Amino acid sequence: MDVFKLILLIFLVVCAISVSLTKNLLTSIVIYMSYSVVMSIIWIILESPDLAITEAAVGAGVTSILFFVTLKKIHAIKGEEDDVEAKNE
């Protein structure tokens, strides 16, 4: 079990560093989601299920959805409508 904990902690550090170094915003959000999921697994290992559920719901769920909606609003993510309009032009 100690090896598993060490792997999770290393993954957390790698996620934190890669989020700050990634230039693509969509990739950063996906890495952030994986960070939150791993953090919720760590909370479960530490026998704190209330924090694990909160981390999974807020960190990987709600916050990531808000990030995706924000990227869509600022046109950083192209939708299907944009692709159709580009083909018609």
Outline the low-pLDDT stretches: none
User: Which structural category do the helix and sheet elements fall into?
Assistant: mainly alpha
How would you describe the shape? elongated
Write the element-wise H/E pattern from the N-terminal end onward: HHHH
Record field, number of beta strands: 0
Largest β-sheet summary: none
Distance between the termini: 58 Å
Counting copies of identical and different chains, the oligomeric state is single chain
Average of per-residue pLDDT values: 86
Question: What is the alpha-carbon Rg in Å?
Answer: 17 Å
Helicity level, as a percent range?
Answer: over 70%
The total of helices stands at 4
Beta-strand content estimate: under 5%
Please characterize this protein's 3D structure.
With 89 residues, the protein is an all-alpha fold. The chain contains 4 helices and no strands. Helix 1 runs antiparallel to helix 2 and helix 2 (25-45) packs antiparallel against helix 3. The N and C termini lie far apart (58 Å). The mean pLDDT is 86.
